[in-house]
Amino acid sequence: MSIPEEHKHGIKRDFRCAVLTISSSRFAKIEQKEYIEDRSGDLIRGILEENSHKVVVYEILPDNESKIKEKVISLVKSDIEVIITTGGTGLASKDVTIEAVSPLIEKEVPGFGELFRLKSYDEVGSAVVLTRALLGIINKKIIFCLPGSPNAVELALKEIIIPEIPHIMRHIRE
Length: 174
What we know:
Layout: H1 3-8, E1 16-22, H2 24-31, H3 39-50, E2 54-61, H4 65-76, E3 82-86, H5 97-101, E4 107-108, H6 110-124, E5 134-138, E6 141-146, H7 150-172
Helix pairs in contact: 3-7, 6-7
């Protein structure tokens, strides 16, 4: 058994999660009481629940740095263990998820973004250089910031996040 497999053996595998979709257009529709489709948010919730995690918070926020920061701060003070955001990670001026979350991070884990981009290369080619993704630790909680693309979300969750959540939690609780 490899060292990473040993670290994953016999540890808790179900965590309390929050899913935040960052999208001003979807947020505006909610405020206008219109129907919204949130494929990436729904996908995250479904994959987490299929893997025995509990999604106890799901929210759609606008592309607003202070609102994102305020929500993340409240979540890391709660009993939530894992936060996953989707959207707001692009290069447009309105994309501020990474800028909102980065100052809150106590420890950044750059290997996540590196591996995510490597795995994304086959699908998007050299456009992968535009991809911003983040994994950090705040108050012994995990936060992942993912792009808004459903394909990116599915790749990140199935190939990286779900297999590694227990491993990460073991280390940050030591």
